[in-house]
Amino acid sequence: MNTSVRGTAAPATERDVAGAVRTLIDRLDGELRHPDLSPPLRGLAVRGVTLATGWSIDTWRERVDGWYAAAEKPGGHTDTGEWVKRLRKLRSFLATAGRESRHLDADAAADPQARALFGEEGQDVVTTAIDWLTAAGPPDTGPAAAAVVVTDLHKRYGDVTAVDGVSLTIPTGRIFGLLGPNSAGKTTLLECVEGIRTPDSGEVTVLGLRHATSARDIRTRTGIQLQQTGFYDLLTLRETLDLYASFYPRPVDVDALMTRLNIRDKAKTLVKDLSGGIHQRLSLGVALVNDPELVFLDEPTTGLDPQARRVIWDVVRTLRDDGRTVVLTTHYMDEAEQLCDTVAIMTAGRIRVQGSPAGLIARHVGDSVVELAPAAGFDAAAARALPGVRGCVTQGDRFVLRSDDPAALLRTILALPDAPVEARIRRGTLEDVFLAIAETGEPA
Ligand SMILES: Nc1ncnc2c1ncn2[C@@H]1O[C@H](COP(=O)(O)OP(=O)(O)OP(=O)(O)O)[C@@H](O)[C@H]1O
Ligand SMILES: [Mg+2]
């Protein structure tokens, strides 16, 4: 990984650099959100950032995480709040950047255009900023920065062990995704953390507080969307939100909340007459009505149409960009890959792997895999026996093969006497990681 910085950083006062980085981030933000900007151009902008700095998107992600933690540290920079906001914005942009930039990999013409978008000026600004910010000290990832800390948590229902010794730290200001097959224990774990279920053993702290002694404080500062929620059938959507808002000392503006969730036109509809998707958005609204610092969302997008899912993604990203922490569960791996800063995959009550989606893909699957629809008689054992194969996962009628050299493996496969029905190289995904872990219950 190239972590050297090109260009020479001119000595500058902190304020000059801060201003310059602000300008750059504002520009990026403007470019990336512009309604006229087509997806390829957005990708170009992303590519421009990597070219202008000589850093890969992954390096950027790591560095921004470091700056962010340093800026957040008490006694850090003078205008910490402002910095943290900007770094969050940049980090959120970088979270989706990898995926977008991949689309451009094959497009040789992209580079000159990208260079034109982010030329010398961006390079100098970012270089100086990096020098200044990296001098701010090592990132602080200690318990003070954690929104949730779980230690050795166990929960059984009769003979069923739902959570079997989970330890977990969820940092503040991130989107954390809890993934796993049905019955893995996700909802049980969340409910123990939320304080609505009592664990058999283990410790939970939320925002540095314990449920036993600070239940009311935790309830005021957190928001909960349950996997299934019942509301009063004969209240309207708006009356429901007003009712929940009345429980809290500092509720948000209910009209603004309905606008954010795109449900304002249903304000006067009775709960019993709401469609499933709007009911789902109402329950998210209820979770946000107290303006929480930490939000738990149990499958917030299940059953939603593709457009509605994106509304929820925007809401979740905005929460994170505002410095809040979101803990969610989802069965949509594409959603987790795009939305979450960190994911943990749980099977049978235990967390098997944890990390950034990109990191997990790189570690457990590889950037590229070979996917093949085998010819009759070619089984998983034969696939595993091929030279260079480091793992094989069955996905329906297909095998997904992991290898250090996918191109060589594909050539070997195509030269087999019984050629496969179909074979191709494709990107590794979080779904591959998930399926590999769900199949074996162990890291792939
Ligand atoms: N109230 C309960 N009483 C008895 N068993 C329960 C209860 N709640 C959950 N379980 C069991 O505990 C295990 C974990 O369930 P949990 O709901 O936590 O899983 P999950 O990962 O959220 O699954 P899903 O993806 O289907 O929502 C399952 O075997 C489930 O049947
Ligand atoms: Mg569940």
Automatic annotation (TrEMBL):
SUPFAM superfamilies: P-loop containing nucleoside triphosphate hydrolases. InterPro entries: AAA+_ATPase (IPR003593), ABC_transporter-like_ATP-bd (IPR003439), ABC_transporter_ATP-binding (IPR050763), P-loop_NTPase (IPR027417). It is a peripheral membrane protein. GO terms for cellular component: plasma membrane. It holds the Pfam family ABC_tran. GO terms for molecular function: ATP binding; ATP hydrolysis activity. It is found in: Cell membrane. Residues 148-373 form the ABC transporter domain. This is ABC transporter domain-containing protein.
